[in-house]
Amino acid sequence: MPSLTSDIIGRIKRLPLRPSAASALMPLFEAVSNSLHAVQDRFGDEAQKKGEIEIVAHRRAAGVDAGHIGGFTISDNGVGLTRENFDSFLKPDSQYKISRFRSHTRRTDSFFI
Fold it and tell me: How far apart are CA 36 and CA 48, in angstroms?
């Protein structure tokens, strides 16, 4: 049986994001959002009191960009990467967390730009 595949790089290139400081930080916003959800899943109504999210900026040490931020590490004391979250991550355009984005607002997500 044929299956549908996705070219994630092509998909990202078609996103309607203009180059800007805000769009450059979208991965940071997504990682912080994931941390908020993980903390909320673990602690429920106690999330604001018991939850911890740490954001560390990594500065470049040498070269032309010395001193500029080259990446971030986001750590939290939430539920971690659950099977449901991982399955959603592997599915382009997943709707798994859509309702959570409308309602709100130790895993580590690291990325470098």
Answer: 10
